Amino acid sequence: TEFFGEFGTGKSQLAFQLSVNVQLPPEKGGLQGTTLFIDTEGTFVPTRIRSMAEAQGLNPENALQNVYWIRAINSDHQIAIVEGAKDFVQKHGVRLIVVDSVTSLFRSEYPGRENLASRQQKLNLHLHSLLRLAEIYNLAVVVTNQVMATPDMFYGDPTRAVGGNIIGHTPNNRVYLRKSKGQKRIARLVDSSYLEPGEVVFEITTQGIRDPQE
Ligand code: GTP
Ligand code: MG
Q: Which residues line ligand 1 (CB under 6 A)?
């Protein structure tokens, strides 16, 4: 699943919440598993994981230990982490892999039109290795992708105009996030291979990601 949207739309917050929720037992919507959290921007916040865990009735320290955080320093490193994750995933009961953000290092290392082809090729291979891990080890993969609002989006469907081209059709589900009032956000499911399109409103609260209050 890809979460895409502008800065501050809650992509990382959703990734944190999922890293906590995956630890819950199945009857509470979890997979009783751990998370491999690949952080490419240095925006992982351990204290936020603790407070989200506490709000879900989990022991905060255990919950944080169940999120295996790794900082990817460049795109080759990011690729290598995923290529080498097989044994780790099996050994540590990983049921969720997060890449937050999956595109930023590629964007900064391969800027401009002249690098577009090689960037796309590398990114596509990377996305396919993630997909392979998902299929072989029956785990969830969530990637984030920051997109900027462009003037183009006024001439058509913004979910296609922005960011649509960089990740293409590899993810099974694409969720477009946008800001609403205050801490409210709107998540729109687009391009799902097995779910109907739809929209929900959520709120970023002290406890974590929640249904809106009113
Ligand atoms: P980029 O990575 O810049 O593209 O943004 P993002 O989509 O990852 O945004 P992020 O998930 O960081 O969401 C930022 C929003 O979450 C802001 O509105 C913050 O106010 C809110 N937020 C971040 N941390 C906390 C927190 O600890 N408590 C609460 N209540 N809100 C928080
Ligand atoms: Mg973020």
A: 5, 7-13, 43, 48, 146, 183, 204-206
